[in-house]
Amino acid sequence: TAPAVPVITSGALTNSATPVISGTAEVGSTVAVTLGSGPNTATWTVTATNGTWSVNTASSTGKTTTGTGYTVANGSNSVSVVATDAAANASVAATQTLVVNTTAPVVSGVSSPLANGSYKAGTVIDIGVVFSGPVLVTGTPQLTLETGTTDRVVSYSSGSGSNTLVFKYVVQPGDTSADLDYVLTTALSLSGGTIKDVAGNDAVLTLATPGASGSLGASKALVIDTTAPAPTVALSSDTGTNGDRVTGSAGLTLNAVDGTRVITVDGSVVGAADLATATAALSDGSHTVVVTDTDAAGNVGSASLTFTLDKTAPAVPVITSGALTNSATPVISGTAEVGSTVAV
Description:
Immunoglobulin-like; 5-stranded mixed β-sheet; 7-stranded antiparallel β-sheet; single chain
């Protein structure tokens, strides 16, 4: 009676060019393990002591073909195992397609699904590190971004089992970048974790030079802007006493707009082109102008001015002192609008 078909228990995928092939067979049987096909074939003969067998393809031990070992080529390799008992009965061959992959995955590019544009504090930006093939992640690898005074270290979020690993960057107050990128070619770190392909090869973590083809900066145009606009509004002419915000002219001076601008006069929106006309039509009294700028990132800044408009001339003063005096240095007195400046 022929032995039962041997069982190959070693994995069908390896990152070793000289793998160990092992399994089980009838106790005491002679096991012939053949690797490869055609002229590129090697065979080892071992004994299934206690019903188990093992062949180290780097070794000449048990090898019945010439050479001291055998280097398995990358790709698919055929394995055939036959058990023969003491009576020379041979089993049906057990077969396996052994896939050898000794090529480490590399980073092919870094990008983001976010649209090109400007982004403010609080925005969540997904950054995808793309590898040459699927990778598996353990732990929490990290990516360091160039974000101004303080570089941000962002953590791996998702993507294990695919060729794209996602890192989430939450824009912080004070961050700034004219074109978001990582800091260096070594910006991707394991931080105690691992990034490997399914064969177990450690990924090469080297990134493209920042700004070069394949970098985040080259693939996307993401502007980080956490600074609010600073509009200004002032009276063009503070007539009367300078700085008291009491004026006979409501002309205003505004700085250049940063993004889009909304102007309100006493709570009503006024277009920039109509501002001069609107202020010229104001009546005497207290008025408030608010200027609000919103930049491309969505940051908002405001400025306001409250002033008193007085376009009405005072009533004619009254001279109450006598028109006849015997003093060479007389006192001249009278009445006028409260608070007005009187020139005699």
